[in-house]
Amino acid sequence: MKPLRRFTAVLLTLLLTVGLLAPASVTASAADYAIDPNPTILIHGILQSDVYLYNTDGTQVLDSNGNPIQNFPPADIDVGGLLAKAALPLLGSLLLQCDIGLSSAVRACINDVLSVMQYDDEGRHINDFRVHSTPNSLADSSAEDKAYIYGTLPMRGLADLIGEEKLYFYAYNSFGNLHDIVEELYDMILRVQAEHQSEKVNLVPISMGGVLFNALIEFHPDVADILGNVVITIGAINGSRIVGDLFTNKLSTDDVNLYYSMFTSLIKGYMGHLVNLLLRLLPKRVVLNVFDAVVEGLVGDVLSKCTMLWGLVPAEDYEEASAMWLSDPSRAAIKAQTDAYQEARVNARANIKALQDQGVHVYAISEWNWKLYAIVSSYDEVNSDGIIDMNSTSLGATSGYVDTPLPEDYVPSDPERVSPDGIVDAGTGTLPLHTWYFKNQNHEATGRCMPIINLVIRLVSSAAYEDVTTTEWGQFTEFDPVPAAADPDILETILDYADRFMYHFLGAKGYSEFWKLWM
Question: Which region holds residue 183: left if phi is over 0, alpha if psi is between -120 and 50, else beta?
């Protein structure tokens, strides 16, 4: 992935489910448990449907290279033109050691890149974006669609058990209108039930799909009569701390993180270190101006009108974020929609518990012991899978920080629900007997983790209500930490080791003081 695209994607948490793009499969054609006879709908994560821009005559808009333009990231980004626009302000700011139009140029560049994504005052795209819909079962889908679906969500093993005629893939625009998308999902559930004349319909909401599930059960409580098995897989039930901090402009700008770890974690290869060096040539006040311009351009000008992304703002951040971006009267209609979803988010745990009480088999799968990307201030405060904090995916479990057990005086409600390492108390979650936890598992790599994929298939296809005591998976599964990549680029190695030497030689405080010489 090109550095610019990776940086932007991570900054917007648009990598929420990239790991699920990796193809994998379960080849089982039979099971040693009773199979649920009802159809299943897979609800994918962010950026896992193709969404294209169309002309008024119904044809796709093509870029200068003849490729269809998508809503994000827009095709055919003129990197050279953007660099030319920012070159003089950057040079002036370097020479004069103050902001000579650099932050304004950065904001203008962001607006140029995202101009195709603009929204109206109802939170809908101004341009004609259309989702490549896959309304039919996999059995009735084209070979191309079927290959895409299996390549996106590795569920061949589920199809082997229940049949492709009972497996569906709900495609939606990750940057669309949340209410419209939820209504389409509800309609699909009713249609699939009618097609199969089935008693129930099963759902697998994945990552951002958890946002849609929250809204579905809040706006359509009658769906409880239709749902059978629901497997919330690393779902953003309370959003993501990354998006919450981004929407409240709480980027991580402490000296050590800003000048040492942030960009090397976002931009792989030597480019991350070169960005680090460039930052050190600018006074910190200029760097912070640029960061503010990034947030203003991304969130203020564009993404604060996207109701789907508001679904990823944690409940505890919503009031502050909405006051920042939705207080203008022109955004009243958008705020009415995001207020309604805030109610769904606040009620999520109670709504899910109510589903369970009504006989729906609800499960959750969570991951822990990874730090968030170090671009936001919460990166050193919460336990996560790298993208979503564990409290969100686990529906309220309590945990210590990464590699940090809960305090010695902590008293769990049920000692049997505490992880062997003492970090996680599953007992405080909404579904203490129906939530599984995977340690040292990264969000982006979930699609390549066959134990998790096999567990999802088992839970959604079982006729019985499984729990952590009835399957071969215990409540807590621990994986070995992921090793560092081998054979790095030679320039990256030189820059990295030089930086590390300074950090370890001077210590955190000395390292911070050293770079203050440039601020």
Answer: alpha
Which residues lie below 8 Å from residue 202, measured CB to CB, with a gap of 6+? 36, 38, 39, 40, 41, 227, 228, 229, 230, 231, 460
Q: Residue 21: which of 456, 445, 482, 450 has the closest Cα? A: 445
When the candidates are 3.40.30.10, 3.40.50.1820, 3.40.50.2300, 3.30.420.40, the CATH number that belongs to 3-53+148-241+348-478 is: 3.40.50.1820
Residue 390, SS3? helix
Distance of CA 473 to the CA centre of its chain: 25
Q: Which two tokens stand for residue 110?
A: 């962001």
Rounded CA-CA distance 188/191 in Å is: 5
Strands 476-478 and 435-439 come out as parallel
Summarised one tens digit per residue, pLDDT across range 17-52 is: 333 333 333 334 467 899 999 999 999 999 888 899
Helical (H) or strand (E) element with 168: strand 167-170
| Cβ neighbours around 56 below 10 Å, total | 6
Instruction: Tell me: cis bond preceding 73? Omega within 30 of 0 counts.
Output: yes
Closest-CA residue to 231 (of 256, 206, 251, 250):
206
Per residue in 87-129, pLDDT tens?
888 888 888 888 888 888 888 888 888 888 899 999 999 999 9
Give, rounded to a whole angstrom, the gap between the first and last alpha carbons of the chain: 32
Q: Which two tokens stand for residue 397?
A: 């479990």
